[in-house]
Amino acid sequence: MRRTRGHGAREQGRPDRARLPLRRSLLGRLLAVSALVAACSVAATAWIAVQTTSGAIKQEQGQNLTADARIYDTLLQYAARNPTWDGVGATVRELARESGRRVALTTQGRQPLADSATGEAAPALPPQASAVVDPLSVDTVLAARGADGQGTGADRIDPRAVGPFRLSAADSRALRRTADDKVACLNRAGIASDVVVGASGRPRVQIVGNDPERALGTRCDLAALDSPTRSERKALDALTELADACLKRQGREGVRLNNDLSWGDPAPVAVPGEPGAVVPRPVPAPRDAPAEQAAPSVEMPELTGENDRAIASCVGTARSEQLSSYVASPALLFIGDEGGATLPGFDLSPANTARIAGAAALVLALTVGASVFAGARLVRPLHALTGAAQRMRDGEQPASVPVSGDDEVGRLAAAFNDMSAHRARLEEQRKAMVSDVAHELRTPLSNIRGWLEAAQDGLADPDPAFVSSLLEEAVLLQHIIDDLQDLAAADAGALRLHPEPVEIRELLGQVAAAHQARAENAGVTLAVTATAPGPALSADPVRLRQAVGNLVSNAVRHTPEGGRVTLRAYVAGRDASGPYASEEGGGTVVIEVTDTGSGIPADDLPRVFDRFWRAEKSRSRRTGGSGLGLAIVRKLVEAHGGTVEATSTEGEGSTFALRLPGASEQGRRPAPDGMTTAF
């Protein structure tokens, strides 16, 4: 089975950044801005529309209610002054024309009396009437009450329904002349007054101001205007008889009504010629008695709250009975639109329409402005990223972009800066690598060319030593090319591994045996610290020997004569002890190569695994190799899913540790990206 990993390898040791919470993310801010703009737009539009529309509705309803009250009052006046509805059609049509509404009157049996909508196409009347026009039972909500009402506060009889109390033209003219004389008298006394004519035709003097009692101190006798005429006394007597009949049916005593339809003691009047003197007003005679005949005394019933209520009820009943033949019968009033609807509609005025349109335009402008502002703030860092990417594409020096926050855009900017810095480092490494490869290849090629030119010129004999020297340079050249090929294969993901169970003790022994001769020539002791069976490991033995061999070769090269290079392996797991101790379930297998050489400066440790890097800058063959060995070690170890690290103390030596997953860890740990593993 073959598994191939992709090339998107993530650098070892770089943890993933936690996912941003929604409230700090770009998506959350976009949603918040959109929701805020939408809420403000809807709220502002709704508020302005409600305010404007409700104002228009209230204004229109107020106008309609005013028009309805005027229609009702006009028809109520007609009913109070006319015994029938004959001739009301002209009044109905005039009211409909002035109000722009449909006005219709029917009897209580819904027989039509008058209708402003004429013709067969007139819509049917609604089932519910707008009001009942009855001057003897007024709708107090719609009625415009007269200022000279003759009833009590609880009286629902229209004050314009006077019936038999209406004065004749002669009596009205006579009383008007008397009223004019009284007004002139009061004006001479410095008291402003006017003549007001009531619904019955009786004039009265109204004092201008808030102190009507001032007239009592003058010589202007106003009592003459209060004396009832013959027709009024007759109507009052008839009303008294009707009220007495009602009271007698209840077993109560009769009552004498005053001119203002009150009962009890007569109302006081001013005595002519006596300033400020007030005497009781004489009660008029019940019949057409002479003026000089005194009215007979009437024994008044005991006045109690219960009697007052009974008298008031009987007086109201008596008035309705007396006036019934003088007023029109009750009628149903229908007020509606010309199309037949009883509820009035309304049309927005041009001003209100303009206000709503302007408010909508303002809300739209604010919405667009807020969206543009929010979008500009969100897009600005993206523009900076785009510009930086284009400059990198054009080959300019990469520059970092500002990081504005820790949201998605901020993280993108930070990642771009990391990528830009990494790309700059890679570019520097590429240039250095080209230079180093040219240098490494130039040395053996120059040597081979020199020896061949010397042989051609007869300066050197092609003896075995000559051939051995050329072979050594060719082998070195082949070694450099093989190392470059291994690195290229690792970078391209074409480095193939053939894992199998490996016994570490045996592998370390093989590596030590392979480098034993070189170590002895350098005067260096090469040893494996233990001989017990090593930990279980599944790896490619060839590639693993290559990695450990590179470390041993490097250690021998940098260890002075008399020094020591030690190879050891152990399991770095819980409960592990001893160099080769292992535990059930595996662990991390650690292979260490320790030398007692010159050591590596602390500033150079982070770069020891870079390609072509050497601590000795002259790149002399006596002090170092090609600079690819440790880079190959890192690639081979990463291909096995492990890591490599170096620790060193300058002047004391260095330790290189390979950390590889144990045999049981191999099945749980994924293979590294960019490697091909063949089983």
TrEMBL record:
<dbReference type="Pfam" id="PF00672">
    <property type="entry name" value="HAMP"/>
</dbReference>
<dbReference type="InterPro" id="IPR003660">
    <property type="entry name" value="HAMP_dom"/>
</dbReference>
<dbReference type="Pfam" id="PF00512">
    <property type="entry name" value="HisKA"/>
</dbReference>
<keyword id="KW-0808">Transferase</keyword>
<keyword id="KW-0597">Phosphoprotein</keyword>
<feature type="region of interest" description="Disordered">
    <location>
        <begin position="103"/>
        <end position="124"/>
    </location>
</feature>
<keyword id="KW-1133">Transmembrane helix</keyword>
<keyword id="KW-0902">Two-component regulatory system</keyword>
<dbReference type="InterPro" id="IPR004358">
    <property type="entry name" value="Sig_transdc_His_kin-like_C"/>
</dbReference>
<dbReference type="InterPro" id="IPR036890">
    <property type="entry name" value="HATPase_C_sf"/>
</dbReference>
<feature type="domain" description="Histidine kinase">
    <location>
        <begin position="436"/>
        <end position="664"/>
    </location>
</feature>
<protein>
    <recommendedName>
        <fullName>histidine kinase</fullName>
        <ecNumber>2.7.13.3</ecNumber>
    </recommendedName>
</protein>
<dbReference type="GO" id="GO:0016301">
    <property type="term" value="F:kinase activity"/>
</dbReference>
<dbReference type="InterPro" id="IPR005467">
    <property type="entry name" value="His_kinase_dom"/>
</dbReference>
<feature type="compositionally biased region" description="Low complexity">
    <location>
        <begin position="265"/>
        <end position="280"/>
    </location>
</feature>
<keyword id="KW-0418">Kinase</keyword>
<dbReference type="Pfam" id="PF02518">
    <property type="entry name" value="HATPase_c"/>
</dbReference>
<feature type="transmembrane region" description="Helical">
    <location>
        <begin position="26"/>
        <end position="50"/>
    </location>
</feature>
<feature type="region of interest" description="Disordered">
    <location>
        <begin position="258"/>
        <end position="302"/>
    </location>
</feature>
<feature type="domain" description="HAMP">
    <location>
        <begin position="376"/>
        <end position="428"/>
    </location>
</feature>
<dbReference type="InterPro" id="IPR003661">
    <property type="entry name" value="HisK_dim/P_dom"/>
</dbReference>
<dbReference type="InterPro" id="IPR036097">
    <property type="entry name" value="HisK_dim/P_sf"/>
</dbReference>
<dbReference type="InterPro" id="IPR050736">
    <property type="entry name" value="Sensor_HK_Regulatory"/>
</dbReference>
<keyword id="KW-0812">Transmembrane</keyword>
<keyword id="KW-0472">Membrane</keyword>
<dbReference type="InterPro" id="IPR003594">
    <property type="entry name" value="HATPase_dom"/>
</dbReference>
